[in-house]
Amino acid sequence: MSDWTPSIARLQARADEEWLQVEREYCGRLFAYAQRRTGDLQASEDVVQETLLGAVRGIDDFDPTFTFEQYLFGICRNRTIDFLRRRKAATIQTGEDEQGFPGLEALARETETPSAIVRGRELSERARDLLVETLREWVEETWREGEFQRLMVIEALFAGGWRNRDVWRRFELRDETAVAGIKFRALKRLREIAAVRESGNDLLRFLGTAEEVDHRLDLDVRSLWKERRISCPARHWLARGVAGTLAQGPASFVRFHIEEVGCSWCQANRDDMARVSKEAGFEGLVGRLRDSTVRALASERRVP
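Below the sequence we write its predicted structure tokens.
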């Protein structure tokens, strides 16, 4: 399983080969994401097709602040919500039982799409970008040190919004003060990293008061952690997790990240990799997507 990323310049130039490679790399995980939420094979195929066509049409406005995968999954999430809303509306009109459509409200309440992350008001735009860089460096450092329980505790607090009591019980720590200690040391290290990267701005003040003002963590750290995929393992780590070849430490984190924190991106990646690659009908989907993408590219190139 590769960690290939496309050339945005080639995508914006509507290079057929680059877009067809996007289909090959991302079709499966997009389909897994949509299917998990809709429970409908045909609808999932439609969502994937609409996602790829939307990506072609919107690529000129791509924001390099985000990864291409975030861009693609943001479109997919919106198309999935659109489908669920249409299905719910049809159900209400026909008077059918709404049982089986419980995911819409929860999905709509998920973190906003990448284009909406600017809703944060506690930090400047530069400080939010610096916070993302700082959090990522902390995660990478913690992973290298093999401190996977520490990483899970902080992810539970920062991304999951867990209470100290719940974290203490889940990880069988001494008491709630042990959780608070882990959080305090993490914030201290984040301040150190931020100070090295860029001193004298509002991020340092934010991190300095975050321990006492938790709602600010809710506003910025939690949303950025999810939207920017701060702790998402690379695809090759997920592949090794699916294959059962990860050591106990990283394996425990990957399971926690997917199953307990419920990262939708990584769930989709895992489901895609667990799928039998030649599953009946799936190659047909890829072929249909290829045809529609080629037509869309040709149409976009004709636009003056």
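Residues 120-227 form one domain.
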